[in-house]
Amino acid sequence: MNLAESIVGWKSEIAAIRRDIHAHPELAYEEVRTADVVARELESWGIPTHRGLGVTGVVGTIHGRNRNGRALGLRADMDALPMQELNTFGHASKHAGKMHACGHDGHTAMLLAAARYLAERRDFDGTVYVIFQPAEEGFSGAKAMMDDGLFTLFPMEAVFGMHNWPGMDVGTFGVIAGPIMASSNTFEIRLEGKGAHGAMPHLGVDPVMAAVQLAQSFQLIISRDRNPLDPAVLSITQIHAGSADNVIPNDAVMRGTVRTFSEQALDLIEKRMGEVTEYTSRALNCTAEFNFLRKYPPTVNHGREAAFCARVLKQIVGDDKVDQAVQPSMGAEDFAFMLKEKPGCYVWIGNGQGGHRNAGHGLGPCMLHNGSYDFNDDLIPLGATYWAELARQWLAAPTD
Q1: Which of 16, 45, 135, 236 registers the highest number of CB atoms within 10 A of its CB?
Q2: Any binding-site annotation on 41?
Q3: Is 104 annotated as a binding residue?
Q4: Gap between the Cα atoms of 34 and 22, Å rounded
Q5: Architecture of the domain whose range is 5-182+298-396
Q6: Full-prediction pTM beyond 0.90?
C-alpha cells in the first residue's frame, strides 16, 4: 500500500479532530461548531476559507505552484443523524438524540488531512477546492451550496466524492461507471371515504380497503410496467387508519419510498402511481390526494472520471483491492446533485467489519445508521492519500 508518509504521521492528530467532531454531532444546517473546527484547521495551514454557502458550508482554496486556470473539487459531508448513539467509549456523542452514525466525521477528517498535505507541498499546477458540505442526510445540502453559487464562485472542471462502506475490508475500494446509488423519493396518499359501523359496511365507503388495493396494485407497476433491467424499489412503509375495532374510518394515509437508478424509471413509476391512485380510488368511491416528492436524483458516475479514479486507487492499494464491478446501493446520496452539474465520480472506501471499535461500543453491528457504528480511523491516511493523489494527477493530466 503506497501511503503518503507525512499523512501517516498525522494520523493520531487528525483522528483526534475526527473524534472531537464525533463527540459533538450537529444536524443538518446546524453544523456551526463543526464548520468552525474545519475553518480553523484549514486557516492554520494557510488555506483561505469561504463560509456560508448552504448556510454552514465551508470551502477551502488551495492554489498550486502555478495558477493555470485548471481546478477540481473534493467534497466531504459534515452533518450527523437524529438518532441515539449506543456506544459508550470516550468520544461517544455528548448530545442525546444526535450521532455521527454515517461516518461524516471521518469524511471530514480525511479531507482535512488531504488539504493539509496539498497545502504544505503545493507540488501541482492549478487549484484544489476542498468542499465541506452540510445537510447531506435528507436535506439537500449539496444543492443548497450550488444554489448559493458554489460552482460560480469556485469554477471547477470536475468534482469528486467518497463514502466509507462497512462490510468492505479496510484497504479496498469500490468504484463503477454509471449509477452507484439510487434516487430517493417519498410519496403520501390521503384517501377519504365515509365512516360507518364495522358491522354495516354497506352504509359507508371504506378507505382501508382502498389502501389495501393500492398497496397491491403498486407492486404491479414494478413487476409489469417497469423494464426489469432497470432496477427500482417501491416500498409502502406506513398505512394509518382507524381507531376502533368496530368502526370503518373516514380516511386513511399511506406513505413510502421509491428508489431508482434512472430518471426514466422514476418518471414511469410516478406517472403510473398517480394514475393507479386516481382510478382505483374512483372505482371504490373514495377521493384521493396523491403527493410525490423527488428528493435526491440517482448518483451517476461519469465514465472517464470513474476510470481515472480507479487508476489512481490501483496505484495506492493494488489492482486486486479496487472493485470495479461493485454492486450499486439503493441508498441515496445528495452528491448526485453535483454530478448532474459537473463531471465526477463517487467512490466507496472499505470501513471494515467493526473490529476497530474500542471497548464500550454498542452491541449492534458497525453498519451505517446504526447506533453502534463508528468510523475506522485507519482509513484516514488511506482516504487522504487518495484525495491528494487524485487531485495532483487530475490536474497534471492533459485536457481533451
Answers
A1: 135
A2: no
A3: yes
A4: 10
A5: 3-Layer(aba) Sandwich (3.40)
A6: yes
